[in-house]
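Handoff note, outgoing to incoming analyst
You'll be picking up this chain. Sequence as last confirmed:
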Amino acid sequence: VGIGGGVRIVSCPTCGRTGIDLISIAKQVEQRTRDITADIKIAVMGCVVNGPGEAREADIGIAGAKGEGIIFKKGEVIRRVPEEKLVDELMDEVGLMLGNKEKL
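Most recent structure output, in case you need it:
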């Protein structure tokens, strides 16, 4: 709910346009961010059609496409990434945003 800071993860309910293993990826993001105390909102969206727009209030997020995904900040796409690297690349970006030099 955003009280007291910490990570807030938002995700879509999935639909026919979902292009990645959204539930698995959302669980990985949740697991890898559980110790972050900074106030940050991360979106994990299933498709590039609606994902960045629906999650534009998120600080950072990912949205899936067939076999790949995009990473976006405040609704603006910053790059495309193969699906298998999506979570690692997202965590690298979160670390940069938070000023962390270590791997999340």
